[in-house]
Amino acid sequence: MGLHIEPLEGVGAEVLDVDLAGELSNAEFSAIRDAYAAHGVIFFRDQDITEEQHIAFARRWAPININRFFAAHPKHPEIAMVSKEREQRDNIGGGWHTDHSYDHIPAMGSILVARELPPEGGNTLFASMYAAYDALSEGFRDMLSTLKAVHSARHIFGEAPGTHYSQSDAGGGRIGNASAAEQLRDAVHPVVITHPLSGKKALYVNPAFTIRFDGWTAEESKPLLMQIYAHCMNPAFTHEFVWRPGSIAFWDNRATWHFARNDYHGHRREMHRITVEGEPLAGVAPAVA
Ligand code: SIN
Q1: What is the per-residue pLDDT across 145-203, written as a single tens digit (0 to 9) for each?
Q2: Residues in CB range of 288: below 8 A, 6 or more apart
């Protein structure tokens, strides 16, 4: 097996000497899975895969989650289109978030394939929620381990005036189905989770979808949430991925956040995203003295 893993500064690892267009051996797949669990996001370069190969690779991990809100690929409903046209102003995912935390069983992660890139810009930032957790004091970790948080999609994808996408030109075409967001029952997750694949502890709140701590008001929750977010954005836990033709990123929603930069106005960017299902999340019991 020629494949090897090169850890990156901040978060993530590059998987080298592998061809995702070919049939992966069990040994290769298992090495990729170990890297994914350990690093939270993995990157591939110089890949030339068709939509069918993208779908086949995703299915090897878990069933595909067909996105409720994103426009689907015209021929392959499994692929969500993450695109921005030359004349559009707003991008999709242009703020720190982790996908699907508003679901009761959040999706495992997404495999994003670059299909058309601007000449410059359009990078994606990733942040490690393992590293953010590890850098906290034991006392603060223990306090956070007693908390749960409420996550919602309504203020982002919903119908009410003022929701994130209703104010953006990403609505009507790129993002839609606001009524589905209204029907979702808010999800409650532990603030510190034991990651289902790695067994490591990770912070599980995010600026886009977490609306408050369970049992607290939004106003009461805000100062502590802001403190946690400021900590998680520490550059020591982040990596800025520079896309090139043939690049693929596969992130884990339970171990990382991501942020798509919107700094390429006047140019087109088209990415194909497939999201795969996850498993129920378990919290961490606080340490007993
Ligand atoms: C996303 O949040 O899924 C979009 C990421 C990107 O376009 O880089």
Answers
A1: 999 999 998 776 666 666 766 666 766 577 666 677 667 788 999 999 999 999 999 99
A2: none
Q: Which listed residue (97, 100, 164, 239) is catalytic? A: 97
Vertex 180 angle, CA 176 and 184, to 5°: 140
**Integer Cα distance of 247 and 145 in angstroms:** 37
Give me the amino acid identity at 13: A
Assess whether the C-beta atom of 114 lies below 6 angstroms from ligand 1: no
Kindly give the number of the ligand 1 atom that is closest to the alpha carbon of 261.
8
265 is catalytic: no
d(CA 23, CA 213): 45
Domain boundary assignment for the chain? 4-283
pLDDT in tens, 91-105: 889 999 999 999 999
Residue 229 in contact with residue 95, Cβ under 8 Å? no
The bridge status of strand 124-128 relative to strand 238-241 is: antiparallel
Per DSSP bridges, beta strands 282-283 and 41-44 are: unpaired
Instruction: Please report the pLDDT score of residue 157 as a whole number.
Output: 64
Instruction: Give, using CA atoms, the residue closest to atom 4 of ligand 1.
Output: 93
CA atoms of 228 and 207, how far apart (whole Å): 10
Residue nearest to atom 5 of ligand 1 (CA): 260
DSSP-derived secondary structure for 85-104: -TT----SS-SSB-TTTTSS
Q: What is the mean pLDDT of the chain?
A: 92
Topology of domain 4-283 in CATH is Double-stranded beta-helix (3.60.130)
Find out whether 83 and 175 touch, Cβ atoms under 8 Å: no
Q: Is 97 known to be catalytic?
A: yes
Ligand 1 atom 8: residue of nearest CA: 260
Q: Please give the order of strands across the beta sheet that includes 282-283.
A: 201-203, 192-194, 282-283
